[in-house]
Specification:
By secondary structure, this protein is mainly alpha-helical. The protein has 17 helices and two strands. The protein is 74% helix and 1% strand. Part of the binding-protein-dependent transport system for D-xylose. Probably responsible for the translocation of the substrate across the membrane.
């Protein structure tokens, strides 16, 4: 006797949260893209909102050509420090000494150039050498002796502040030669015509937008080739247009002031180089591996001590660049230079999306975090808000950024 087996409908299990995010992102919807990349998208949304808020509160003064130029000059050294700090934080460390290193490198340069009468480039080379030596000192204790970076750099903060006072003999030195001062206060405006704006600045802005579009298109094509999720073509074009509008509006304002700041070119080069280092090199992947899962990185053959050593050497190098820029802008060296710079750099990294536990963060995110701090500080200064209130606001913003990171981790853990 033949038994008839009833046909059953095939049941497909419901995709998990991560798979749903991937499918929404692959579908190209704006909501899906934001959901899948909340951490990255949120910081850009916050930045635009803060810029718009202070533009309204200051009656548009915060977006004036002269104010934007001054903001670039005033906060460039903090952004340089943020590049190095985010790499340190990604690896699961912290550096509390960068403000003191900024002061020491500027002091060494001032003594050689101002006091000893040497050429300005000698001061630059000496400052870079001191910064690299300081980074190697920290890297030796952290990587090879095994002392936590918090303790090593806390000691370094005191040690190098004391050396700064010793080098300067507790007095300020000024002024630097004109060539040295142009590092932080010089401008490129070679095509300044009779129309009231600098065409060279607009040309550089257009080249930057074109480079961003080409780079984004190549990255999108590569992801499609490997069958990875991407946003829709319409959304990609919208993103390129939005970035282009923002960049060209910024270039337009700079072109109506004094032209393209030299320090902005230095900063752009550093962002491009370190963006590639952290995303396209073996060293960058090893930094993320160490911060994300140290035991797994060690088992994978990553030379943890060597990588940690060079992380701090790099931080010292960037602190020296920041010291050169700061002393150039101040046209001299002061014993109290660089105070609280380490906190601004750390805040920029965390606000930009770096994780407290390491393994997460980007150079671009740190730049946006630094710009948020710069816009807030500059806007509150234009509004005449007292210094103590500014410190309270910045402290609350940092706390909320870290709380957002903790919330994301708990949410991700609950969804597994």
């Amino acid at each position: 006797m033949t038994k008839t087996v009833p046909q059953t409908e095939e049941i497909t299990p419901a995709p998990g949260a991560a798979q749903q995010d991937k499918e929404r992102a692959k579908g190209g919807g704006l909501l899906g893209l934001v959901t899948a990349n909340l951490r990255t998208s949120g910081i850009y949304i916050a930045f635009v909102a803060i810029v718009a808020l202070f533009a309204v509160l200051t009656g548009g003064d915060s977006l004036s050509p002269d104010n934007l130029t001054n903001m670039v000059l005033q906060y460039s050294y903090i952004l340089v420090l943020a590049i190095g700090m985010v790499i340190v934080i990604i690896a699961g460390h912290i550096d509390l000494s960068v403000g003191s290193v900024v002061a020491l490198t500027g002091a060494v340069s001032a003594v050689l150039v101002i006091q000893q009468g040497m050429p300005y480039w000698v001061g630059i080379v000496a400052a870079l050498a001191v910064g690299i030596a300081v980074g190697a000192w920290h890297g030796l204790w952290v990587a090879y002796v095994g002392i936590p970076a918090f303790i090593v750099t806390l000691a370094g903060m005191l040690l190098f502040r004391g050396l700064t006072l010793q080098v300067l003999d507790n007095v300020s030195l000024s002024p630097f030669p004109r060539e040295y001062g142009r590092i932080a206060t010089g401008f490129l405006n070679g095509l300044l015509g009779g129309y009231g704006y600098d065409a060279f600045t607009l040309l550089i802005g257009a080249v930057a937008v074109a480079g961003y579009a080409v780079s984004g298109w190549r990255a999108r094509t590569a992801r499609i080739r490997y069958d990875q999720p991407v946003e829709s073509l319409d959304l990609f074009l919208l993103k390129v247009v939005a970035v282009g509008v923002v960049v060209m509006a910024f270039a337009w304002q700079l072109a109506h002031s004094r032209g393209l700041p030299i320090v902005l070119i230095v900063l752009a080069v550093l962002v491009l180089v370190y963006g590639l280092v952290t995303t396209r090199t073996v060293f960058g992947r090893q930094v993320y591996a160490i911060g994300g899962n140290l035991p797994a990185a060690m088992l994978s053959g990553v030379k943890v001590k060597k990588v940690n050593f060079w992380i701090f050497v790099n931080m010292g190098f960037l602190a020296a660049i920041a010291g050169i820029i700061y002393s150039s802008r101040m046209n001299g060296a002061q014993p109290a230079a660089g105070e609280m710079f380490e906190l601004d750099a750390i805040a920029a990294a965390f606000i930009g999306g770096a994780a407290v536990t390491g393994g997460v963060g980007t150079v671009v995110g740190a730049m946006v975090g630094g710009l948020i701090m710069a816009v807030m500080t500059n806007g509150m200064q234009l509004m005449g808000i007292e210094q103590q209130v500014q410190m309270v606001v910045k402290g609350l913003v940092l706390l909320l950024a870290v709380a957002f990171d903790v919330y994301n981790k708990r949410r991700a853990g609950a969804s597994r």
